[in-house]
Design brief:
mainly alpha
Length: about 190
């Protein structure tokens, strides 16, 4: 996690979004391949479907694998030869690569969301989910609304904030802070603010 202010002021949303979309599109054929592998394992007793045989020999998958970033001196595991109706010869390294692809795509989506929402959007989203919803995600009682929002940001969203008042100042700027305090009193009773 990075400092909240640094995390959002360094990123320029349009540049970040275009880079994310490019990387995301490059990984989709690999993700689709592993999704069909998973479905064959789960629903066809490990036997390859026509869809898996087709995807495994597709140009899109080959190009995506060639473009997948690999550390210097490393190479991707060779994907197994797939024959329709035959058992999928999956190895542990394939499962590890599938997990890496999912993680990379999830990170790209997360980066895009962060760039789109910005600091104000993330702070408001945290306040919304931990205080303002009709049925918020409840925390263990805290000393005040500020602590609840900060805990949600650092725990659930893994965002570091510069100081304990950074989220509060953003919520004040959004004219939502008093609403958060009132909602805290309603949810947790009268605690010190």
């Amino acid at each position: 996690p990075q400092n909240l202010s640094v995390q959002f002021t360094i990123l320029h949303p349009q540049i970040v979004a275009s880079q994310i979309v490019t990387h995301y599109k490059a990984g989709i054929p690999i993700f689709d391949y592993f999704l069909v592998v998973r479905n064959c394992l789960a629903h066809r007793s490990g036997r390859a479907s026509l869809a898996l045989a087709s995807r495994s020999s597709s140009t899109e998958l080959r190009v995506a694998l060639e473009r997948w970033p690999v550390r210097r001196g490393r190479k991707l595991p060779q994907l197994p030869h797939i024959v329709e109706g035959k058992e999928v010869p999956l190895l542990a390294r394939h499962a590890i690569f599938a997990g890496l692809v999912c993680r990379k795509l999830a990170k790209l989506i997360n980066d895009h969301l962060l760039a789109h929402l910005g600091a104000k959007g993330i702070v408001f989203m945290a306040a919304h989910h931990c205080l303002l919803l009709e049925e918020p995600v409840l925390n263990a009682p805290r000393k005040g609304a500020e602590a609840v929002v900060n805990e949600f940001l650092s725990g659930r969203y893994r965002v570091r904030i510069k100081g304990r008042h950074e989220a509060t100042s953003i919520l004040r700027e959004l004219d939502r802070w008093k609403e958060c305090q009132l909602r805290f009193r309603h949810l947790y009773g009268s605690k010190s603010f």
